[in-house]
Design brief:
The chain has 483 residues and is an alpha/beta fold. It has 18 helices and 17 strands. Strand 1 and strand 2 form a beta hairpin.
């Protein structure tokens, strides 16, 4: 006989066909179709549960359980109930109902309790009209006959049933908005939060780099329900409450390239995918291994990761706002164009600065040097958020007539950005030594964000000239570092 159940594949559940047959032999269960160790261990739970519920385990019969498709390695938490019910149906201890449109999925206890697997919240697209689940919640006790009734007669659609749209709670982290920032830093927060431009924060210890990074998360745009669904899938951890806001991933500087971007056999997702639709903070960038730094170049550019390991090919999303912080000298105080008394030798400073990967730094659209003592007035983070909400509302109105505004400024193409600028101006705009097309694109994208903050539909030359101070001038200072 055949029963429809589910197995885990990456972050989701996919259908599997459970085929059960009896042949003469020792009374045991034999799984076929590449089961993992967890499925093999379920043999003892199935035996114990059948006997504890006063049913008889087949005698002098070897039970073959084939899991199709055969070529995929299987991992599942709910095959136990499907196999147990299949044995009882095949041995005619229970009358077999019509299961053509039914997925049987549930964990078993040693005494026959049926538990609802918590991975039912994962995405699953059924090919039938009937959705069922076993048991009546976490730790619900039900004998097999009652489990059959709940499977086949009590068809319900609670929020955790596969295929049912779930409503996610979204809560902005208000505690991170109770801060004040100098005007220069407040302006940076506005630009980064609105356009979601990747940024490298360099400067002395204690100059507010980590505070800026932490506050940025609370200033980001509120995620949609579709985005929260994706975030939940990428960050679901057993035993932890679901996220209510965009994720903030903060890998330690000892994290390997494999941990940052993912890999392995079969491939698994890395930290950059966990940060999808959120932020990844690389604190003390120069302390990361050079290979780990270089591994981030492609995902920062393409917003996705493509991994091939043997016969496995996997693509993971990586649309994350990357924030990196670093000191530029072993003393921690030196920044370009600042007078600092440094006790380290020039050779040591140059050696430390050489850890900066030029191609990686070029991926950061904005470079910002922090200072220990900022001049100017203080701006509340709540006031920054109000200004951002006005700009987002302005963009949403423009998006109704111009499809370009449906995308963040940091995702605009070069061709779309230069439509508003005179051709003669573009020829004279950038300095001759600006050889990187990526720098030009970053400058235009930041300029688009500056125009959005001023509620201007057209990009103007003054926006580009202001953007150069955030994208080109600091970048050139880093290139000349230590010279």
């Amino acid at each position: 006989m055949k029963i429809k159940s589910l197995i885990r594949e990456q972050d989701g559940l996919v259908p599997v066909e459970v085929e059960i047959n009896f042949i003469p032999g020792l009374p045991n269960i034999q799984f076929l179709g590449l089961p993992d160790q967890g499925i093999r261990e379920s043999i003892h739970r199935i035996k114990s549960a059948i006997r504890a519920q006063a049913f008889e385990f087949p005698k002098a019969q070897q039970i073959l359980v084939n899991l199709r498709p055969n070529h995929l390695k299987k991992s599942s938490r709910g095959l136990e109930l499907a196999v147990a019910l299949g044995i009882l149906w095949e041995s005619e201890q229970l009358s077999k109902p019509d299961t053509s449109e039914t997925w049987v999925y549930g964990e078993l206890g040693l005494l026959g309790e049926v538990f609802e697997p918590d991975d039912l919240t994962r995405e699953f697209e059924p090919d039938g009209n009937v959705l069922v689940w076993t048991g009546r919640g976490q730790n619900s006790k039900a004998t097999f006959d009652r489990a059959v009734m709940s499977c086949l007669q009590d068809v319900r659609e609670p929020e955790h049933v596969p295929g049912v749209v779930r409503e996610y709670e979204v809560t902005r982290p208000e505690q991170d908005l109770a801060l004040q920032f100098p005007e220069r830093q407040a302006r940076l927060l506005e630009v980064i939060a609105l356009g979601e431009h990747s940024v490298l924060l360099a400067g002395p210890a204690g100059s507010g780099k980590s505070t800026i990074a932490r506050t940025l998360s609370a200033l980001l745009k509120s995620p949609s329900q579709d985005e929260m669904h994706t975030i939940s899938r990428n960050n679901r951890v057993e035993g932890e409450a679901p996220l209510r806001w965009r994720p903030v991933v903060h890998p330690h500087h000892s994290t390997t390239p494999l941990g940052l971007i993912g890999g392995g056999v079969p491939p698994f997702k890395g930290e950059i995918t966990r940060a999808h639709k959120g932020m990844m903070i690389l604190d003390e960038l120069l302390e990361f291994h050079p290979r780990a730094q270089e591994a981030l170049r492609e995902p920062m550019e393409e917003s996705c990761i493509r991994i091939r390991r043997g016969r496995y090919v996997q693509e993971y999303p990586a649309e994350a706002l990357v924030i990196a912080t670093t000191n530029l000298c072993p003393c921690g105080d030196w920044v370009p164009r600042a007078r600092v008394v440094c006790g380290r030798s020039l050779k040591k400073c140059q050696s430390y600065a050489e850890r900066l990967s030029g191609p990686l730094v070029d991926r950061f659209q904005v470079t910002f040097f922090t200072q220990k003592r900022e001049t100017g007035g203080q701006v509340l983070a709540t006031d920054i958020l109000k200004r951002l909400e006005k700009a987002r509302e302005f963009r949403s109105v423009l998006a109704e007539k111009d499809v370009r505004f449906t995308k963040l400024a940091s995702r605009w193409r070069f061709e779309d950005l230069v439509l508003d600028l005179p051709s003669f101006y573009m020829k004279e705009l950038f300095p001759q030594e600006l050889s990187s097309r990526r720098r030009e694109l970053a400058t235009l994208r930041v300029a688009r964000t500056l125009a959005d903050l001023e509620l201007q539909e057209k990009l103007e030359p003054r926006h580009v000239e202001t953007a150069l101070k955030m994208t080109f001038e600091p970048f050139e200072s880093l290139k000349r570092l230590g010279n």
